[in-house]
Amino acid sequence: MNSTVLSTETTAIANENKAEKVKITLVEFNETEYDEQVFTDINECVKHTKKNTIKWINIDGIRDIDMIERIGKLFTIHPLTLEDILNTIQRPKFEDYEHYVVAIMKMLYYNNGLQSEQLSILLFENNTVISFQEEHKCNVLDTIRTNIRQGKGRIRKFGADYLAYSLIDAVVDCYFGVLEKIDDDIELLEEELVGDPDKQTLTRLHHMKRQMIFLRKAVWPLRELINNIERSETKLIKQSTTIYLRDVLDHTIRIIDTVESFRDLLSSMMDVYLSSTNNKMNEVMKVLTIITTLFVPLTFIVGVYGMNFDYMPELHSHWGYFGVWGVMIIIFIVLLIYFKRRKWL
Amino acid sequence: MNSTVLSTETTAIANENKAEKVKITLVEFNETEYDEQVFTDINECVKHTKKNTIKWINIDGIRDIDMIERIGKLFTIHPLTLEDILNTIQRPKFEDYEHYVVAIMKMLYYNNGLQSEQLSILLFENNTVISFQEEHKCNVLDTIRTNIRQGKGRIRKFGADYLAYSLIDAVVDCYFGVLEKIDDDIELLEEELVGDPDKQTLTRLHHMKRQMIFLRKAVWPLRELINNIERSETKLIKQSTTIYLRDVLDHTIRIIDTVESFRDLLSSMMDVYLSSTNNKMNEVMKVLTIITTLFVPLTFIVGVYGMNFDYMPELHSHWGYFGVWGVMIIIFIVLLIYFKRRKWL
Amino acid sequence: MNSTVLSTETTAIANENKAEKVKITLVEFNETEYDEQVFTDINECVKHTKKNTIKWINIDGIRDIDMIERIGKLFTIHPLTLEDILNTIQRPKFEDYEHYVVAIMKMLYYNNGLQSEQLSILLFENNTVISFQEEHKCNVLDTIRTNIRQGKGRIRKFGADYLAYSLIDAVVDCYFGVLEKIDDDIELLEEELVGDPDKQTLTRLHHMKRQMIFLRKAVWPLRELINNIERSETKLIKQSTTIYLRDVLDHTIRIIDTVESFRDLLSSMMDVYLSSTNNKMNEVMKVLTIITTLFVPLTFIVGVYGMNFDYMPELHSHWGYFGVWGVMIIIFIVLLIYFKRRKWL
Amino acid sequence: MNSTVLSTETTAIANENKAEKVKITLVEFNETEYDEQVFTDINECVKHTKKNTIKWINIDGIRDIDMIERIGKLFTIHPLTLEDILNTIQRPKFEDYEHYVVAIMKMLYYNNGLQSEQLSILLFENNTVISFQEEHKCNVLDTIRTNIRQGKGRIRKFGADYLAYSLIDAVVDCYFGVLEKIDDDIELLEEELVGDPDKQTLTRLHHMKRQMIFLRKAVWPLRELINNIERSETKLIKQSTTIYLRDVLDHTIRIIDTVESFRDLLSSMMDVYLSSTNNKMNEVMKVLTIITTLFVPLTFIVGVYGMNFDYMPELHSHWGYFGVWGVMIIIFIVLLIYFKRRKWL
Amino acid sequence: MNSTVLSTETTAIANENKAEKVKITLVEFNETEYDEQVFTDINECVKHTKKNTIKWINIDGIRDIDMIERIGKLFTIHPLTLEDILNTIQRPKFEDYEHYVVAIMKMLYYNNGLQSEQLSILLFENNTVISFQEEHKCNVLDTIRTNIRQGKGRIRKFGADYLAYSLIDAVVDCYFGVLEKIDDDIELLEEELVGDPDKQTLTRLHHMKRQMIFLRKAVWPLRELINNIERSETKLIKQSTTIYLRDVLDHTIRIIDTVESFRDLLSSMMDVYLSSTNNKMNEVMKVLTIITTLFVPLTFIVGVYGMNFDYMPELHSHWGYFGVWGVMIIIFIVLLIYFKRRKWL
Known about the structure:
Five copies of one chain form a homopentamer.
Chain A: H1 4-10, E1 23-29, E2 34-39, H2 42-47, E3 54-60, H3 65-74, H4 79-86, E4 93-96, E5 100-110, E6 114-124, E7 128-133, H5 140-150, H6 160-194, H7 199-231, H8 239-304, H9 313-316, H10 320-341
Parallel strand pairs in A: 3-7
Antiparallel strand pairs in A: 1-2, 1-3, 4-5, 5-6, 6-7
Helix pairs in contact in A: 6-7, 6-8, 7-8, 8-10
């Protein structure tokens, strides 16, 4: 059994040292132009940027610490921010430094169980957004890139802060997919509960609860994060973008509400499981009692006439045997009627 | 089994594309005049509006996205508001834009289970209220139209903000109907619990809990919504109307209190169900034990005299058989007295 | 079974139309004078008021809507206030209008179950207090009238706001009586639990929980109500009276604390009930097991010697029969010792 | 069974009238002087006070209402304060009047169950502290008197406000003693749970929970009380004393934390008890099943050869009897192995 | 069984008097210099301090009260602070005095159960940090000393406030180790639950819950503590250090979240345990019922033909015996099929 609750926490910094190749994607655009290039070195990348465009530099993979540090120097990022970007067991948070703001979030996806990947979004003064993606497992960002390329929606007309908002929005939206998956699982489990619950149902229920505990830990800080963005007095985020943030906030609150509903539901389902087990036992009990009650008195009666006393008048009566059968059948029927009345049958 | 908790969430935007005919109802009135017209096109509708009247445009059906977008342009509605109107899995909310305010709510009704329909209410500067109703399943708004036509109550004397309040009030009031229906269901369930609970009772209990979880999710944001209206600094809502909003707020708090009471009650009922099941098992247990305890010793005794030993003096005694019967009857009576004392009978 | 939780809510406005006779009691007093008169018409009543006195007009019965509306016009009461007075499923609340303040409360009393009656208290500028009592079932107000008549306490020396405070204080105080009654009931139930709990105990426990849920719903708004009075900036309530309100607030907090304690206690009692049922089952189980364990092996032995094999040497031994008895008695004793060790006996 | 939860509330004002002798202890001190005198009349006491000293007047017993009222007049105490002092079912509170402040607290002690006694502390302008002790059962105050006499600690050097603080501190400290007693009880109970829980354990668990509910009701207001002192703008308490109050506040928070921990612990223990009962039943169940499973088939076999058919070939075989024994022993051993595998033995 | 919840509270001041040798370690450093010395007397230590360095005086062992008091006088520490340092059952707290600030924390470590040790950190005006460690059991501080010596990280470049932060950070970090240990334990317990839970599992579950209650009590004040540091207006902590404190705050919130998750998880596990026990009983029940149901009717049948009636026609039929066997085998098979259908086999 895998420890879902802490999984993101314990597998963390361990393999930091393994220097992986980092993939740097530069997307530049304004209302009329669009350009997309891939680099492996940050200096190369910075050289190629043009004026009068919104620049989005996405870094896939955060294991090459040297590179990250060079990026840090190039953009004068505070060492604590760099530590937060590298430390993937980070709690989601928003921080406001003088010349940039940073939001660190978890992208959730469902792939043989709940998985999470860290995305750090930095918004700089000169219309630049830098995003660090832990590994390239969750392809949420690709959709945004396609949107920009095709000039769909508002994204090409607005500034870098709207781009940053779009990234946050995309991350929050992928939570809904996870919730729908869980909703399906819960429904399946409910059908199992009503149908024929067994030991596996219990294990599955517990597993769902575990996931809910994990989800909750991931979801609650999100609300705080977006609240903090709204309340922050940074000049990097324009008033017109704040209105969109309010919308994301609404989404996070809806996610939280849903997670809480799931928790309540699972709690109720555990009760149902327990009651259901009791009901089953009750039924087994009844069968046992019926059998015992029906046959034990009869067995006693036949035992009586199996005794070897010299003088037992009934034994010698011609109709004795059939008389006993008659008595036994009457007892049997009376008991059956009794059970019917008690609603045991 | 239908997923009540998420039902409103998963059946959402899916069929957006299916262009349905939209029905536009224009109601114009002031203290002396009243006019009601039905259109299928918004431009037609706007042409027909008169001066010096309060205008209420109700749109039934939100699937014709083109129409909605044209309305949006005509009244310069923010794109986010339009998205919120179209997205029926929206969390209830109030937002304050410069030249209009918008409240998005859920109308609840009971029709083979809890159902909900979205109503968006927009209040504009020029004495205009636009309402978007998801589908025309809940006929709450008709009552208001009748009231206006007949000039009942305060509605003809007050402005557009009072009309908007009336819509909100009507939506909140229909929650009480739902609560009464649930109250009846709970009472029926309680009688079942006290009487003869079976497996169906458990399923029904769980189903009620599910509904309560759904209701809770629908009801809590309502309070926040009305709080936000009160606290907003919009000039569209006059001081004199705020006093009525305070009243609606009181109603929502009462609804929340009642939902919480129901939750507590259902929780207690689950406990009662579990205890009740245990009590039943206990009773079955007792019957089993009584039968076993009464007959097993007797069966042993008759077994003794069924043995085939050559030398068993009792067998040859003339009164042996009747003596054994006597002993058995005494044991039987002693055990019965014992059970009476233990209050098992 | 009566639905206590909603009872006050569903039996509400129904019989509004039935015009009952309304009884109007006018009490006028100052430090030296005292006068008490009964009217059936409000105009008559108002004509008889004197100058320089504190006037308390109490209306018993709120079904005569015409009368209530005339009172409303006479004292220029806001229509919403009138609605609140008439609507007896109102949530307790305090509201501050320009020339008067209004507090709507529930009087609780215990009469074959928890009952409640609505009392609305209006304090006007010209030293006038009007109180509307739903029906005259709860005689709390009589005590205050007696106090005024006899000039006991501070009530004759202080203004109309102190009179209003006295009414509120009287209502809050009658909650303590209800709590004491419930405390007694809980104690009885606890004795039952420790003694011999049966199915009735469970029903009673659930019934108590129901009452607690109802009480809670009635009590929590009380605190808010008095808080609101304290925080309101009305000039109708003097500084010197605020100190007394602080005292009532303390009382309501104590009531809330006690209700919460009762809830906790009942929760613990439900656990005890469940455990107690289990314990009982355990005991029944033990008896069953002891009987089975004692007699089943013996029955087997006697069965052995009931077999009809031609060649069974023991059968022909002279001491066979007594030997078998000996063996069986030894087994019996050994098992008894075994049970003693296991503490089953 | 005594009702611990409400005991302090219901035995309250009842015997107010029984005039007991009141004992008045006057302690006067400054850095150099110390004097202690006992009076029975308050006027006598006031006459004997000296200038330039801190005066602490302690009144033991609050049943002599006349005396209390005379004290009230002498020191111009607000009638509500006097009521609070006399009403021993008061919720702990702090109030700030113009020329004095008053703190009313509960002293807790453990004497055949949790007991409480009310202490009211009044701090006046002219370096005077008056304390009213309900009955003289709890001797916490004696320790302070001893400290003053011996000039230990800071108490002689600081003002009357420090003396008042010392009284509050002493009351709070005596809660720790109670908590330790309860901790011991819980530990004993836990050992019982792990060892051999019986019906008494359940009753004791419930009793502990009751005490915890009572304690909680007593402890929570304490925090608020001290918070209120700190936040009050009275000039009677110097800045230098506030720092000590912060310390008492810390203590009360620690007490609250501990009470909450105990509650959680008891909750867990109730679960353990329930599980433990189930485990026991399980074991009994197993024994029953083993016995039944071992002997019922064997009894069937011996029954077969007890049948009286004319033609039963096995009966006449010379080795039939021993063969049957062999078969039965084999079945017995096979079943034993089966149970071992199922871990029932 | 050891009382984990209160252990730190009851073993407290008891052995205060036992004067242990105190070990004083002075670490002085700035960007270029580093010096470390060990003393047994504080005066010696103070004499040896140099100018222009950051001074860290660590005191191991707090039982030598004289020494502590001398330190108090030397650095003019408020008596309450000294009491707090000595009293190891202190609640973690931060206090801001005029010329110094003090943070008192618990270091947690896992050594045959959860252990805690108190660390008090005082930050003075003249670049001095004094830390008091209860006993030298937890070697967290050694790591910091090594860091300073080797000039790793930022610690040599920043001021005394950063040193104080480092100490706090180190204490908070050691909580993560404890959490990981507990996470492992919980996983082991979960495997046990799914596999073969026994009575030990229950005891272990309860023990884990106990630890969680203890942890919670230790962890919650931590958040408040760091919040208080941030909010305090002391000039001793520079703005640049506050940003690091925000980071520690994030860590403490993560710790709290994890502890709460563990609590939820353990709660769910208790449910699983209970259900699991029920399932087991259910299975035992089934075996019992199957055996009884299979053999009791058969035993009845063989009993019938063991009766000694003179006239029983079947007995004399040549195929009677084999016929009975046939009937019995058919009954047996029919019952087996019935059980298969009921899924009992």
